[in-house]
Design brief:
The chain is α+β, with helices and mostly antiparallel strands. The protein has three domains: 151 residues, Alpha-D-Glucose-1,6-Bisphosphate, Chain A, domain 4 (2-Layer Sandwich); 93 residues, PDZ domain (Pdz3 Domain, Roll); 32 residues, no CATH class. Helix content is 28%, strand content 30%. It contains ten helices and 13 strands. Strands 1-7-6-5-4-3-2 form a seven-stranded antiparallel sheet. Strands 8, 9, 10, 11, 12 and 13 form a six-stranded antiparallel sheet that branches. Strand 4 and strand 5 form a beta hairpin. The radius of gyration is 21 Å and the shape is globular. The N and C termini lie far apart (59 Å).
Length: 306
């Protein structure tokens, strides 16, 4: 990870591919579909972007309404992005950032610099920044695979098992409250209903410090730890801190699309996904700690016969 101010992220990769091909991949809607998005469309010419063009981009349970704000083919393009991210409980959260691509020919390689700016100086802004930085890191690796090897590995890149949480690196605001030093654990902002960690008894405010024996001092380390269980049926021991006390629990990781976000919106519309997630989130009893039976859930989802 390239050190940056807290309002931005920078990723750099070198691609052994023609400059024009790299430009098409990152600057056009059709190019985006070749390595990144599940669905993409533009209000402008398909392969000739210009300032003011609007893109609709989908990444499973995340939508991005994007506007071209700079376009200098084939070296610079920038977008004003509005991301709508659907949580596992059906709520939609909106984030706004700017994304800029710079392409430079360096011998047989194209140096691609991707800079995202405008993250809010809040804990949730930090969460979005850390998630997006790691997401772009995987996506640029897939772009390299597509351009150099002809292999589209986006599903494999993002099909690592999940815990069902929203988390960020422990920051200065959280540290004195949770009794964990800054950048020595992952603070759980949310634990989603019926998620692996929810079933294991963990809760928001806990700090994960180790997964399967692997330390998780920051968000990238957390993602690397759970990614190491790719393709495995895993129940790692998770070490965490609650109220200053070190605890351990065994967690069965999940590949459910509720937590991976890998949804084909052409098969399952997002509104249908949202309703399903909202229903699952309402399965808690009045105490908020128990779950209704399958029969109760089915009756709740049926129309009123009266």
């Amino acid at each position: 990870m390239i050190p940056c101010p807290q309002d931005r992220t920078v990723n750099i990769t070198y691609l052994e591919a023609p400059l024009e091909r790299v430009w098409w991949s990152v600057a056009t809607a059709s190019g985006s579909s070749s390595y990144l998005t599940y669905y993409a469309r533009t209000t402008g010419a398909e392969d000739e972007p210009k300032i003011g063009d609007r893109y609709t981009l989908n990444y499973g349970d995340i939508n991005n309404e994007s506007v071209v704000i700079r376009c200098e083919p084939p070296h610079h393009i920038a977008f004003a992005d509005t991301y709508d991210s659907m949580d596992p409980d059906g709520r939609t959260v909106r984030y706004r950032v700017s994304t800029a691509y710079t392409l430079e020919q360096q011998g047989p390689f194209v140096k691609l610099t991707l800079e995202v700016t405008g993250f809010e100086p809040t804990t949730h802004g930090q969460w979005f920044r850390e998630c997006l930085e790691m997401g772009w890191r995987r996506s640029l690796m897939n772009l390299k695979s597509v351009l150099e090897l002809g292999l589209d590995l986006r599903i494999e890149m993002f099909s690592y098992p999940r815990l069902g949480v929203a988390n960020c690196t422990v920051n200065e605001e959280q540290s004195p409250v949770v009794c964990v030093p800054v950048r020595e654990g992952n603070y759980l902002l949310q634990v989603f209903p019926n998620s692996p960690v929810d079933r294991a008894g963990m809760q928001a405010g806990d700090v994960i410090v180790e997964i399967g024996g692997m330390p998780t001092p920051d968000y990238p380390a957390f993602v690397r730890a759970i990614s190491s269980f790719y393709g495995k049926t895993a129940e790692p021991v998770v070490a965490y801190v609650r109220d200053g006390v070190c605890c351990e629990t065994t967690v069965r990781l999940s590949l459910d699309e509720t937590f991976t976000g890998l949804i084909d919106i052409e098969e399952t519309p997002l509104e249908e996904v949202r309703k399903k997630r909202e229903l699952l989130a309402r399965q808690r009893s009045g105490s908020g700690s128990l779950w209704k039976t399958d029969e109760a859930v089915r009756s709740e989802s049926m129309p009123d016969s009266k």
